[in-house]
Amino acid sequence: MHRIVDVVEERSARGIAAAVSRLITTGEFKPGERLPTVRALARELRISPSTVSEAWQTLAALGAIESRGKLGTFVLDGAGARGPSRFRRITEGPGHFRLDLSTGTPDPELLPDLRPALARVGSRALTHSYLEDPVLPALEELLAATWPFAPQALTVVNGALDALDRVASHVVRFGDAVAVENPCFAPLVDLLEQLGARLVPLDLDAEGIVAASLEAALAHKPVALFLQPRAHNPTGISMSRRRAKALAAVLRGVDLTIVEDDHAGDICEAPDVSLGVHMPERTVHIRSYSKSHGPDLRIAAVGGRRDVIDAVVARRLLGAGWTSRLVQSLLVELLSDPASVDAVAAARDAYARRRAALRAALAERGVRSTLGDGINLWVEVASERSALLMLAALGIGVAPGAPFIVAPLDGEHIRVTFAEVRDGEDELADHLARAADRRPPLHRV
Fold it and tell me: pTM (2 decimals)?
C-alpha cells in the first residue's frame, strides 16, 4: 500500500493510474501481484473510492491490470507491452484472398516510375557529416511552398505513422484526454491507447468534425486534437474550409495541440484544408507521400508548431538521427519532375473514376457508402461479421469496421479499399450488396 501512497503526485484518477503504471514499469509491482482494494487505497489517500475505481478502469483498459472479482485486482504478466490490437484486426484476415480490398494501400500501377529519379540521384554523395540539417534545403523549399499555412518549422520522418508516434509521444502524457474523430484511423487509436490517453470521440458529417461535438469535448480538457483533414480513413470525408473556420472559432483561446494527418496527400481531389490557416502557432500538419509516390519511400513531412517540431528533431538524434538524404533527394526529384507530377495527377483522376463507379454501382443496389475522397469506401452493412464471412468465402477481403470505432455509431460498417478495382465494379458491387444485406443467424434457445 505504502508504495502507491509514496509515489502519487496528484490524487486524481489520472495521477493514481500514472503512479501505479510507473511502479509496474519499474518492476516494483510484479506480474501476478495483488493490488490494494479500491476502498483501502481510497482510505489511505483520503479520496473517494470512485476516483480509485476510475484509475483501475484506466489501467485495465491498457492491459496493465485485471480484476478477478472477489479475489481482487492483479498486475498482468507483460503489462505495458500491449500490441496494436486494432491494427491487427484489420490486417490479419483469414488468409490470402483472390481480391484483397482490406489493405488501404495504393495501386502500384498508378505510382510514378522511380527509375529515372533513382538514376539521377544514385551517384550523389549527399551526407558529409552527422551534424548536417535533417532536411535537404531543396526539399524544405518545396515543402514550404506547398504547405497549407506558413509553418514555424519543418522536418521529415519515416512515414505518417512515424510522425504521429513522435508527435503524440511529445504532446500526450498518461491519463491525458485526447479528442479524435469517430470513426478514427485504427493505428492511431492503438498508439494513443498505448500512451495511456483517454479518447474523447468527435462526431463527423460530410464536412468533417461537427463543431458542436468538438465544443462538448472541450469539457474533458483535451491536450490535443488529432484529425485527418482530407480523405479521412476510413470514411473518405474531407474537411471544408467553412468547417475549418467554424472549428477554429470553437478552439479560440483553448490550449491544445492540433495534429493533422494528411495521409493521402496528392492523390486527393479535395484541397489541403488546415486549421493551421487560423491557428498556425498550435497546429502540426503531417503530409505523407506513401499513397501518392510509393509506400516504400517511407517519408512524410511534418510542419507547424516550432516547439513540437524541434522536440521531434532533438529526440531523433538519439535514435534514427534523420531520414535518409538519398530518399529525400529522390522525393525532390519526384516532386519536381514533370513526368512524375503528371503520373500523380493521372492517379488522382483514376482513383476518382474508380471511386465514382463503385459507389454508383453500390447505390444502384441500395447499399449506402460515404461520399468521400481517397481510396477507401465506408460501406454500411446489416452485420459486419456476416459480411466479412460471406465475402471471405468468395475470396474477397475487406477491413472490419469495428477497429475504427471509438464510440458506438448508428449501424455497422466495413472499409473497402477500391484502389486496384480497375474494372468489374458491377460484379464486385453485387457481392458487396449481398454481403451488406446479410443478417446474423438467429441463435436457437
Answer: 0.85
